[in-house]
Amino acid sequence: MVRRKANISPSLTFNSKMGRFDDEDEEEEPIDGDDFRDAVEQVFDEERSSQITQEGRAFADTGERIEPEDLFERTLEEAGVQLRDYGDDVTRTFIVDEDLNHAGFVRKLTDVLAESNKKQKDFFEAFERNVRDERKLEIVLMPSDSAGFGQQDTVMRGLLLVPSLQKPVFRLVIDKMDYYALKASQNEKSVRLTQWLLAQFRYLETVYDSRALFDCIFQVELMRWPPAIRNALIDALPEVLVDVDVQQDVAKNLHEMFDKQQQVGPDPDSMRLAILRCLSLLNINVDTLEPIRAALLSSLKTASGSLVPEIVHFCLETIGAKEKGAFKEILEGIRSNLNLSRFKNDNYADTDQDPVTQVMHEITVKVRFDESHFAKDTVAFLRTGIDTEGRKTFKEFDVLLGIAVFEDQLCQERVLTEFRHQITNSVEDSFGKLITSVLELQAFIRSRFKALLRLIEQLVWAADMVVAEFGARMYKSLFLAFDGDYRQEVVIAMTSDHVNSVESETTVVLGCLKQLAKSHPSLMLPYAVFVQSLFDTIGYLTMDNVRTLFEVMVTLYAHVDDEGDSSADDFHIAINKFLVSSSARDNVWGVLGMLMQLKQELNARSKSEDEKERMIEQTLGLLDKCTKPNAKVRAVFYEQMAEIFLSNPQNIPRSAALVNWYDGLCAQFRDEFFKTRPAGKENSLLGLEKKGFVNSESAEWLQLSELISDANKADEKTETRLVTLVPLFRLLRAFARVHREWDNAVDDNLNGLLFTLEANLSLSNCADAEGSADALSKCHTLYYCIRWLREIVNTFSDAKLGEENQAKVAELLQKRYAHMVACHRELEQIIKKIGRYPLPSEQLDACQTVVVYNVEQPKKKPAVKKEKKAKKAKKEKEEKEKEEDGGGTADSDDDAPTVENDQAEIDAESADDPDVPGSSKQVPGKVKLGRKGKAGAKQTSLEQITLEKFQARFTPLKLCAVALLLKDNDGSSKRILGTLLQELIDILKATLPQKHKRSLPWLSSAVGNGTQYHGGLATIWRLVTTVIPAVTKSLQESYHFFRTQMNNSQGVVDNFERNDRSQQIAELLRMSLQVLTIVFSS
Q1: What is the DSSP code (8-state) at residue 2?
Q2: DSSP 563-602
C-alpha cells in the first residue's frame, strides 16, 4: 500500500496550537487527511533527525560506503540501501538512488525477496543474527538518509511493511522489547531501545495479519514491564490491531489484565488507565462490551480514586445508540458498587480532583448534552426500585445524582418530586441522616453548592409542611458543614428568599435561624447583619414569626463582646421606639422585643441577682405603662409573658419584683372581672343561669353580661374589655407553675386560682325572653363564655390540688362542661336565626371573621344553548317563592343584624382603621414579597367560615379533660356524652399514629393537634386505656336500646327518622364504634 507524500512548501509551517499547517505566503487551502498525516510524519521525522547529532553536527553529508558483511546487508544494498560511515563512529543507512524514497525501498525489497521462499528465510535469519548486536540494532532503528528525498523512515519499519516479513519481524520486535523492557531498570540505554522498538510499529500503513500480531503481543508478560513502556504498548494496540474480530479478543485480554489484582505489577492504576484508553478506541461489539462494562462497574468497590472517574467515563461513552436501557443499568451499577464513604475523609483543595465530583460531572454531561432519553432514564432510575410501595429508598448516590442533575430542566421537577417522596416516607429520619452523610462529601457539595441551595429553596417553598421543615433542616446542616463564604451564602438564601408574607415558609426558616443562634451563636454572630436586615419586614409577618425574629437577634447580640457595637445599639433603639409609638401595631412589636430581651436576661448567668431584680422591675413597669392604653396590646403582653414562664420555668430566678407584680395582677384580675351577688338571688335565675349550671357555694360571678353591656352603653367595641380575660388568666396560671418550681412543691399551686372554677357566669343578657337582648350582644357574651369555660376545664382537669379538693373539682368540671355545651347550642341557634355573626377581633392585624349559616354555593352558568330556558325557569321560581312568602317573613326581627348591614359596618370600620390590612388609612411600607415576586396568601379584611367549622375557632380540650369528663359522666345527657365522644374522636385522629403512616420525629406539631399538647404518646395511651370502659359502656347501652326497641315495638324502622332519641343513640353507637376503630388500628 503506497501513499503519496504531502507537497509541503518551504513557507508551510505547522501550528501546533491550532493543530494545522499555516502558509505564510499563500492563503489557507484545505488539505485532505492523507496529506495532513504525511505532513505530520514529516515534521516528526525532522524533529527526530535533529536530535541525532554528534557534537552538535547534523548528518548532512552522505558518508563513505561500508562493505556488506552478511546476507542481510548485501540484500539491503541490492534493494538500494547502503550502510554509510559518517565518521566519529557514526553509521547510518543511506538510500542511494535519488529517485527512491522509503516507500520505493519497501517495494524494491519486496520484489527482491519474492524470488524464492528460501531467500526470504535466509534474509530473515541473517537479519535476526545481525540485530543481536545492539550497535547494528540501533542502525536499523534510526532514520535513513536519502540522496533525493532527504531523511526517510527506518529500515525496521520498511521490513515491517514487507508482506512476507511482517509477522516474523514483528515477533522479533516484540521479543526485543520484552528483553530490553525487563532490563530497563538497569540502564537508560535499554529504555531508549525499547522506546525505539515501540515506535517502529506505530501507525503502520498496512497490517496484513492482525491475528498474528495479536498472538505476538500477548505472549509476553506485559505486567512485568516498566509502567511507562507497558502503558505505551497498550496505547498503541488500536493502531496496530485494526481487524474488528481481533479487537474483540484484544478487549477480552485487556479485561483479564484489568481484573488481575495480585499480578498487576508496578503502578497498577496507570496500567488500568491505559487499558481503559485502549478499550475506548477499540471497535467492540455489544456482546463483548456488556460483560466488560459489568465487570468494570463491579471493580468500583475497590478501585482507587483516580481510576473511578475513568471507569465511569468509559462505561458512559460506550453506550450505543440502540442500547436504550444501558444508561439506567450503568447508574444501577454505580449505585451498587461505588462506596462513597471511602472519599469522605479526603479534602481536595481543587474540586476537579475529587473522584465523586468527576463521576457526577460525567453523568451530568451525558444527561444534559446527549440524547434526551438519558434524562428520562435518570428520572426513572431515581423513581423506581424495590420496596413495599414500588419506589426505592434512596442511598447516598441517589441524593448526589439528584443534586447533580437538578439544574437540567427535564429533571428538575421530577427530582423535587422524588425528594418530597423520600422526605414524607422516611422511617426514623433515615433520609435526614442520609443528607447529613452526603454533606461530608464536601468537594462535591462545593462544586454543586448553588444547585443545592436552589433545591433546598424549592423544598422550603413546598405547601407540605413536612417537606418545608425538612428543607429548613437542610439549610441548618449546610451551614454547619461549611464555613466562610459558603455559610454566608446559606444565610443570605434563608433571609432573602424565604422571610416574606408566606407564613409557613417564614416560620420554618426563622425556626432554623433560632436553632442556629441558640446552639451555635459564635458561628452565627458574623452574619447577624443579614438577620437584622429582616427588621423592615416585620409589618408583614405574623406575631409568632416576629417574636422568633426578635429572639434570634437578642440571642446573637447577647454574645457581642464589644459594648459599643452599633448593630446591637440600633436594635435596642428600634425596640424602644416601637414601644412608645402611637401605633398599636408598633406597640406590639415593642412588647415582643422587650420580652425577648427580658427572657435573655433572665437566663443570663453573668449578671448578679441585684442587677436582674432591678432589670425585671424596670422592664415590667415600662411594659405595664406602655400597654395600659390598649387592651389588645396588653393581651399580647400577657400571652407572651406566659409563654416565657412556660418555656423553661426551672430557669426563672426567684424574684421579689415578680412576686409583687403577680400579686398586683391577681388583685386586678379579681376586681375587674368578678363581682359578688347577694345571697338568695339564685331563685330568679332563668335560661343559661338556671340552677343546674350554678355553684350555690360561691357568691362570685364572672361579669360577662355586665362588661359587654357597659361597653355598649359607652359606645365602645364590645371586645375591648374582655379581650384580656383569658390571656391574663393564662399568665397567672403560668406564674403559679413557676412558683411551684421555686418551692419544689408537689401540688400545682393553683389553689389561689380555684375561685375561677367555683365562680358562676353572669349571662343575664342571654335570657330566653324574646327580644330582651340584642342578638350581637348575646352572641358576644356566649362566645366569651365558651372560651372561658374551655380554658377552665383544660386548666383544672389535670391540676394537682390535693385529695380534699379532688371530688369537688370533678363535680364542678362536669357542671362547667354541661354549661359550655348549652351555651354552644344556644349560640348556634342564634346564628341560625340571624344568618351571620362577626366574631370579636382579638388581634390588631387579624381580618374580620364572620360565621355564616347556609352559605350559598355559586351556581354554574348555564350553557349557551339553554340560556333562555334557564332564565325562564329562574323567573318562574322567583315568582313562586314570592307568592309563598307573601312578601316577607312574619317573624323577622327588625333589630336583628342582617348580612348587608354587618358587611357595610365591617367594611366601614376596616376602611378607617390603620391596623386593618387593606384599609384606606394603612401606612404604606416596604412589602416583602413571597416566592418569585408574589405576595403570598392574599390578605383580605373579611373571612367567612361555616357553622360546622365554628367549633375549630375555640381552644381544643385536652385529652386529660375529655378522659376525666367521660369517666365521671353518668350518661343521663346523651347530648353531652355525644359531644365528649366527638371531642375524643378528633383528638385520637390527630394524635394516634396509624399503621399505614410513618412518623416524622423532627416535626413540631401545631398546638391543639399535636401529641405534645396532650402530654406525649405515653400519656395519650395511658389516658386512652381509661376511657375504653366508658366507650364500651356507651356501646352496650346503645345496643340494648335498639334490641329492646326491636323486641317490644312494631314499625320501628318506619318511625326511626322521627324519633329524636333514636337518632341520638344511633349517633352514640356510631361514635363509640369509631373510637374503638381508631384505637385498635393504631
Answers
A1: -
A2: TT-HHHHHHHHHHHHHHT-S-HHHHHHHHHHHHHHHHHHH
CA-CA-CA-CA torsion for 17, 20, 22, 28, nearest 10 degrees?
Answer: -130
Number of domains in the chain: 5
- Is residue 730 domain-shared with residue 806, that is, in the same domain? yes
Note whether 853 and 784 are same-domain residues.
Answer: no
Instruction: DSSP for 333-366, please give it.
Output: HHHHH--GGGGSS---SSGGG-HHHHHHHHHHHH
Q: What is the pLDDT of residues 597-635, one digit of tens each?
A: 988 888 777 777 888 888 899 999 999 999 988 888 999
Q: What is the DSSP letter of 408?
A: S
Cβ-contact 355, 308 below 8 angstroms: yes
Residues 815 and 673 in one domain: yes
In whole angstroms, give the CA distance from residue 315 to residue 284: 12
The answer to whether the beta carbons of residues 348 and 443 sit under 8 Å apart is yes
Asked if 659 and 801 sit in the same domain, the reply is yes
Instruction: Decide if 122 contacts 43 (C-beta within 8 A).
Output: no
What would the pLDDT profile of 324-372 be if each residue is shown by its tens digit?
888 889 999 999 999 888 888 666 656 677 899 999 999 988 888 776 6
Residue 106: C-alpha distances to residues 103, 155, 157, 160, 416 (Å): 5, 9, 9, 9, 67
Same domain, 31 and 83: no
HEC per residue, 957-987: CCHHHHHHHHHHCCCCCHHHHHHHHHHHHHH
> Quick check: 946 and 849 in contact, CB under 8 A?
no
Give the integer Cα–Cα distance in Å for 254 and 256.
5
Q: 934-937: list long-range contacts, CB under 8 Å, 24+ apart.
A: 935/500, 935/501, 936/500, 936/501, 936/502, 936/503, 936/505, 937/501, 937/502, 937/503
Q: Per residue in 767-815, pLDDT tens?
A: 654 544 478 888 888 999 999 999 999 999 888 887 778 888 888 999 9
Q: Tell me, yes or no, whether 606 lies in a domain.
A: no
Is 291 within the bounds of a domain?
no
Q: Choose between 919 and 571: higher pLDDT.
A: 571
Please count the other Cβ atoms lying within 10 Å of the Cβ belonging to residue 758: 14
* Contacts of range 483-487, beta carbons closer than 8 Å, 24 or more positions apart: 486/446, 486/449, 487/523, 487/527
Nine-digit cell string for 458:
424549592
Give 855's Cβ-side CA count (13 Å radius): 13
Same-domain status, 803 and 936: no
- The answer, yes or no, to whether residue 914 has pLDDT greater than 70, is no
459 located within any domain: no
Closest CA to 548 of 499, 501, 581, 587: 499
User: Closest by alpha carbon to 146, among 128, 160, 158, 132?
Assistant: 158
Same domain, 924 and 951: yes
What's the distance, CA 215 to chain centroid?
57
First to last CA, the chain: 85
CA–chain centroid gap for 605, Å, is 38
Answer with the one of 800, 834, 868 that is the final residue of a domain.
Answer: 834
- My answer on whether 801 and 830 are in the same domain is yes
DSSP tag of 947: G
Residue with the three cell numbers 526470504: 120
User: How far is C-alpha 262 from the geometric centre of its chain's CA atoms?
Assistant: 44
* 736 inside domain: yes
Helix (H) or strand (E) holding 674: strand 674-676
pLDDT reported for residue 612: 84
CA Rg value for the chain? 46
Distance CA 629, CA 724 (A): 13
Range of the domain at 1003: 977-1080
Give the β-pairing of 152-154 and 674-676: unpaired
Q: What pLDDT is attached to residue 613? A: 87
The SS3 assignment for 201 reads coil
What number of CA atoms fall less than 13 Å from residue 441's CA on the CB side? 28
Domain boundary among 139, 164, 189: 164
